């Protein structure tokens, strides 16, 4: 993802441009967020075509109702992830209702997909130093001392980042709360 | 669609707490390809847990959940978990979180999705400020190229690219890298930025004497010199630090967005604004088509260099690019005559009154982007005429564009030909002469 930490000014300006009906703004919005929207939808639905359809629906919603975004409530990115999540989960529910006669199985499928998508979003938007530490310790299988050395930080700091990163990630299980933003790093 | 501003899971009430999931064990170090522990290591013999404080043990929980710690610490943490309820709760929570880590997939979005999504939006709510038709190909091509660059690492940014074009009927080429190509696009797109009164990337690197007069090549060379991108190898012998090669993507993309935004506002009034290319000028709407064409051609150069597939533009965009080239051909033919590269036709007077029908070649472009154009042969001021048709050339749309890009030589272009040989040759060479760096 290019340019993650854009100032909220960009968000407000984008909302104004969308509200004004500026087609060029819609293109820029797509260029910035399409891969986020598509990957979250894909994580929930596990299907390329369904993810395409969700992408279409999410951008249509934002284009038709830009006023429903309130910049005071948080970044545009988080809001768009929320819209995506809701649209994708609704689609999953509709699909599974046809295939899963048992209510409990349906609910647990929806919950799993939902948590997985939230976890992706959290990893995606957590502060880069935390993400880098998790990446080393988990995907590269470095222990925390090696992680500290790779990152050029103290061992205390490496342990702190790993713990904080996992704490953020574990909030994916807390349905209904906005994804946490660790801003302290 | 109310409530869309919450990041909600689903509409049910409070969730039952899911049963704790025990993450699958990590593969053993023997399977991981990593160095094995020292043989002197006590291995499974439980080491004596070091005497660590509650706070230190707590700080180890993340590393413990990820199994990123030493054996001695394992024993210490696990012993502590047996005694301390709050740490045990957190430990379970963090272990579950580890199960949510997921190798990010490299996602190649279908480039056609952008057009489909935007069209469906604009259909549902027509824009008050649309992107002009003549700017749509540029908007689409810049987005496609940006998507190609998305996952490029250093190897791709440094990959050598050969820029090819025709000059005075001869193949010409110049070596650069992927980053150098983007710098080239950035500097030449700057011609339009300058005409629109936007910030021009050339202004920072220009020789004051060149400012405002430099054409595409001079601009590119100036930018390359300033950023150590030419001849594009990442080892400046003077020991200076080259500009980060990746750093050209952001400015290029920002400028391309800002061009599309600005021409949407100036709209149809500005379509005729003249954009200077140094020794010639194009009206704004043609300059935007020209830049769309160059963006595609160079995206294809880049894709070839890194061995990625890359499709031609959407047919309705390709059709406008072909139309631009066809409209530029009469002037290119005149230029060839002036340069002595072709003789004026002997049999007919080549000076025709402005607006009068003149000897013409029928250019037939096949494929979804195709169409027919009558090219007046003897004067840019003449009008193409079916009655005065002396030759007929048929080419596939993409092949014609490769010819006009200088990527296929006029002799090799797969063209069906009928009629005046000399006229055909002149037109094919004139098409190749439209190419530049």
From TrEMBL, chain A:
GO biological-process terms attached to the record: DNA-templated transcription initiation
A Pfam family annotated for this UniProt entry: Sigma70_r2
GO terms assigned for molecular function: sigma factor activity
Entry keyword set: Sigma factor, Transcription, Transcription regulation
Residue ranges the record marks as coiled coil: none
Domain RNA polymerase sigma-70 region span(s) in chain numbering: 29-95
InterPro entries, sorted: RNA_pol_sigma-70-like, RNA_pol_sigma-70_dom, RNA_pol_sigma70_r2, RNA_pol_sigma_r2, RNA_pol_sigma_r3/r4-like, WH-like_DNA-bd_sf
Gene3D superfamilies tied to this protein: 1.10.1740.10, Winged helix-like DNA-binding domain superfamily/Winged helix DNA-binding domain
Family membership noted in the UniProt record: Belongs to the sigma-70 factor family. ECF subfamily.
Protein name: Sigma-70 family RNA polymerase sigma factor
Taxonomic source organism: Streptomyces actinomycinicus
């Amino acid at each position: 993802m290019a340019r993650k930490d854009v100032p909220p000014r960009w968000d407000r300006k984008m909302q104004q441009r969308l509200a004004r009906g500026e087609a060029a703004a819609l293109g820029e919005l797509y260029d910035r967020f399409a891969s986020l929207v598509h990957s979250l939808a894909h994580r929930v639905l596990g299907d390329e075509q369904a993810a395409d359809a969700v992408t279409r629906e999410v951008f249509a919603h934002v284009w038709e109702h830009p006023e429903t975004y309130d910049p005071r409530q948080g970044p545009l990115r988080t809001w768009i992830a929320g819209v995506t999540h809701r649209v994708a989960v609704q689609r999953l529910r509709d699909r599974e209702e046809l295939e899963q006669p048992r209510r409990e199985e349906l609910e647990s499928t929806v919950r799993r997909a939902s948590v997985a998508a939230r976890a992706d979003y959290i990893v995606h938007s957590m502060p880069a130093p935390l993400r880098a530490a998790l990446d080393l310790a988990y995907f590269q299988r470095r222990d925390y001392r090696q992680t500290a050395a790779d990152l050029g930080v103290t061992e205390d700091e490496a342990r702190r980042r790993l713990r904080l990163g996992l704490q953020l990630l574990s909030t994916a299980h807390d349905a209904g709360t906005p994804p946490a933003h660790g801003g302290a790093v | 669609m109310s409530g869309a501003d919450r990041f909600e899971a689903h509409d049910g009430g409070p969730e039952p707490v899911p049963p704790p999931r025990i993450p699958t064990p990590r593969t053993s170090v023997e399977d991981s390809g990593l160095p094995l522990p020292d043989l002197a290591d006590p291995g499974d013999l439980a080491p004596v847990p070091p005497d660590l404080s509650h706070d230190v043990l707590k700080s180890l929980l993340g590393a413990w959940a990820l199994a990123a710690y030493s054996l001695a610490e394992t024993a210490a943490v696990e012993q502590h978990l047996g005694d301390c309820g709050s740490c045990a709760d957190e430990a379970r929570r963090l272990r579950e979180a580890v199960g949510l880590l997921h190798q990010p997939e490299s996602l190649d979005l279908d480039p056609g999705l952008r057009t489909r999504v935007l069209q469906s939006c604009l259909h549902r709510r027509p824009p008050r400020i649309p992107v002009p038709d003549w700017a749509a190909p540029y908007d689409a091509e810049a987005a496609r190229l940006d998507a190609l660059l998305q996952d490029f690492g250093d190897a791709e940014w440094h990959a050598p690219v050969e820029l090819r074009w025709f000059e005075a009927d001869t193949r010409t080429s110049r070596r650069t890298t992927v980053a150098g190509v983007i710098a080239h696009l950035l500097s030449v797109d700057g011609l339009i930025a300058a005409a629109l009164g936007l910030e021009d990337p050339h202004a920072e690197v220009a020789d004051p004497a060149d400012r405002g007069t430099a054409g595409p090549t001079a601009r590119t060379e100036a930018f390359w010199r300033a950023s150590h991108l030419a001849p594009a190898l990442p080892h400046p012998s003077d020991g200076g630090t080259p500009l980060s090669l990746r750093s050209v993507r952001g400015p290029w993309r920002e400028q391309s967005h800002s061009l599309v935004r600005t021409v949407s506002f100036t709209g149809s009034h500005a379509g005729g604004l003249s954009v200077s290319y140094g020794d010639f000028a194009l009206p704004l709407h043609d300059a935007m088509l020209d830049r769309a064409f160059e963006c595609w051609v160079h995206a294809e150069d880049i894709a070839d260099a890194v061995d990625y597939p890359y499709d031609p533009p959407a047919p309705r965009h390709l059709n406008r690019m072909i139309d631009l080239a066809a409209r530029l051909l009469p002037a290119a033919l005149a230029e060839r005559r002036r340069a002595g590269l072709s003789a004026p036709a002997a049999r007919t007077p080549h000076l025709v009154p402005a607006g009068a029908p003149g000897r013409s070649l029928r250019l037939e472009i096949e494929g979804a982007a195709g169409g027919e154009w009558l090219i007046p042969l003897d004067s840019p001021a003449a009008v193409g005429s079916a009655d005065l048709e002396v030759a007929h050339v048929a080419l596939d749309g993409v092949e014609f564009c490769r010819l006009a890009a200088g990527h296929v030589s006029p002799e090799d272009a797969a063209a069906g030909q009928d009629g005046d040989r000399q006229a055909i040759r002149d037109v094919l060479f004139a098409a190749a002469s439209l190419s530049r760096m």
